[in-house]
Amino acid sequence: FLGVMPAYSAADDVLTTKLVTFYEHKKDSPVPSHQATILLFDPRNGSLKAILDGSVITAKRTAAVSAIATKLLMPPFAEVLCILGAGVQAYSHYDIFAELFTFKEVRIWNRTKEKAVKFADSVNGPVRVCSSAQEAVTGADVIVTVTMATTPVLFGAWVKPGAHINAVGASRPDWRELDDELMKNSVLFVDSREAALKESGDVILSGAEIFAELGEVLKGTKPALPEKTTVFKSLGMAVEDTVAAKFVYDSWSAGN
Fold first, then answer.
1. pLDDT of 92-144, one tens digit each?
2. Where, by residue number, does the polypeptide cross the bilayer (predicted)?
3. Residue range 45-55: mean pLDDT, rounded
């Protein structure tokens, strides 16, 4: 697949397009399945100002949005973080969650245990490698799913009541990470209603009702409900890349 994600932010006066290639992952391939490049234009005349590493920006902005959702939706006194998946997004989520929150325990599970062990060995801080997704999830207060799964890997029967889930993988209308029980028995938040109803298999196939967009919670027009079991379905929005690219460009410009 080749994805094109253009956006203009009037508030920031910045115009970008992200180009994303997504290839089925070949075993032991040194090349990532997702690769991205961001083009930043001058909004006054359309000239190209910069080419930025879209893969790094995508990893960091996705984790940043999950962190915002977690800050708003996680239960008070959350102690256990669980990450399902051990790819690029697992690392970016771990980094920002370790920076912003104080979890007493972090657990990880991955289909390939070697990748989970490598993750635990390479991050700063203790991480417990679990032999099954159920073991990792049981009792966790915050769960992050960043897998390449096409069928559910997280089941409602395992999830602690009141937990918060950031569902980041399964970005196709026929792919799933979460089962129907979890989707239907949680309060569902999304980054974009329109995108979720077109692109998220978790939302489409479960028939779960969307309670709010994350932006509505930030604006105060919808409540966060951290006392409930909550799911934030993250698909990513072009404007997130646009704002992040401007941060990077302005920082670089200031140093030059």
1. 999 999 999 999 999 999 999 999 999 999 999 999 999 999 999 999 999 99
2. none
3. 97
| Rounded distance between C-alpha atoms, residue 201 and residue 160, angstroms | 23
3-state secondary structure of 97: helix
Q: Is 145 helix (H, G, I), strand (E, B) or coil?
A: strand
Both tokens assigned to 225: 């409900």
Q: How is residue 192 written in tokens?
A: 């974009």
Amino acid at 69: A
| CB contact burial 36-60 (16+ within 10 A = b; e otherwise) | bebbbbebeeeeebbebebbebbbb
Chain centre to alpha carbon of residue 175:
15
CB 226 within 8 A of CB 75: yes
Amino acid at 5: M
**What distance in Å separates the CA atoms of residue 34 and residue 2, rounded to the nearest whole number?**
10
**Residue keyed to tokens 């079991």:** 229
Q: Which long-range contacts (CB under 8 A, 24 or more apart) does 220-225 make?
A: 224/72, 224/73, 225/73, 225/187
Tokens representing residue 186 in the block: 């949680």
